[in-house]
Amino acid sequence: MQDHWQRKRAILALLNQGGFVSGEALAQELGISRAAVNKHIESLSEYGVSVFSVKGKGYKLEKPVHLIDEAKLKAGIRQRSFYFDEVNSTNAFMLSHAQELKSGDLCIAEYQSAGRGRRGRTWVSPYANHLYFSLFWRFPQGMAQAMGLSLVVGCSLATVLTNMGVTGLGLKWPNDLYLDGRKLAGILVEMTGQADSECQLVIGIGINMSMTAEQGDKIDQPWSDLSDLAQSLDKTELMLNLHTQLCLDLQQFEQAGLGTFINRWQESDLFAGREVVLSMGNNQIAGICRGIDEQGAVLLETPEGIKGFVGGEISLRGA
To answer: Where does the BPL/LPL catalytic domain lie (predicted)?
Structure first.
């Protein structure tokens, strides 16, 4: 498996230099046959990497592919970091090793074969196009006190990306980050343990870095990515900054609760002061979004007054 990915990484490094590269040049550089090169290119396409093939010219990437610098990553994080070319799910990996992990331990994958979103949705995970990772955290106060954690994580993402020059960001309750009104990142928090004693949290995050047209067509909602900043936004640096901010914010949340994050949430709340519809199963509640409370509930102003809701999926009211 390792040799399989070393070959693919070598091909990607050559193609990342820009322009077309002939199959003969790739074969000569890697010391393999033309047929082997072709098989690796086909395999990369199956993993979601878009490669153009033109007879007489060779191969060319639709978009540059940005990989995590593993040495830089591990040098910049004092906790353990697990880095994979391919894994079924970073959350699943962390959950399966929960008893061995410490707060701040990290798992990153360039490709997830079974990436998951909220409510069992599939998270489209093409190889190296985006940033997929999970952070582990031991929470001594139990699951009951971890309510609203996804909102804290959203604040962390917004803070880091804003500090790195991204504008047009907005947070959507309870677990999404939007860019220019379209989904940029998703958060999936999973827990094991007790309601009133120590629990283990696995915080999964997917951020769209550079979506290809083919992969974008598989997504059933408006999406955005950071491709406009691909040349200036270093993927490894982004990961290091996110890890630092998440650890700081999780420590603050553990000590002081969600109340200290309400102002940060409101600064980025995508729907603040806007008419929305909250879907809860077969029920829909219309109102004006008035932010969140200290338990992580979304607050809606309805004809009966301001009410808090902790379940459902929020969406803008249709015209």
So the answer is: 76-254
